[in-house]
Amino acid sequence: MFKLAITAGHYKYTAGKRCRKSLDPNQTREWVLNSRIAEKVEALLKKYDGIEILRTDDRSGEKSIALADRTGAANNWGADFYLSIHHNAGINGGKGGGIVAFVYTSPSADSVKWQKDLYNALIAKTGLKGNRSRPLARKNLHEVRVPTAPAVLLELGFMDSKTDTPIILTEGYANKCAEAITEVIV
Hints:
The chain is an alpha/beta fold. The chain contains six helices and six strands. Helix 1 packs across helix 6 and helix 3 runs antiparallel to helix 6. The longest helix is centred in the middle third of the chain and has 18 residues.
């Protein structure tokens, strides 16, 4: 049995985590985008035998679950892979952005393989390559440092990019992300 721990980053009311108003009048919250993809991945994976899923965030988005609680739950459960789904910011209304996949600064070989496979599948499926100088990034982030299983944190486009925002808001993009992630996991 393969055990996948999956989390939609943040929660509905995390300060500042939303699309730029000039690009999205609804200022869609990051958690909404993250959760939509996590739910689609779960639904697709339910079609396959031999995969168990643990969702470590609050499915309603109403309650903030600490990162230590998320990674602790995955570790206690014996997850085989930890996947954190996010959307990025930092373009400040400019162009570009794209998908970035993070692993820890000194990752396991398995984490690096997952990182590359997920990134390549996402780019092939969505075309959202962007202009990041390091789309396969290493960073000291809790969600890629603490899990005992291989771990990847995905940033699936920029919520403040003129290029990315119209794309990441669509249902079609969320479907493509979920399909790419599912294909790699299966």
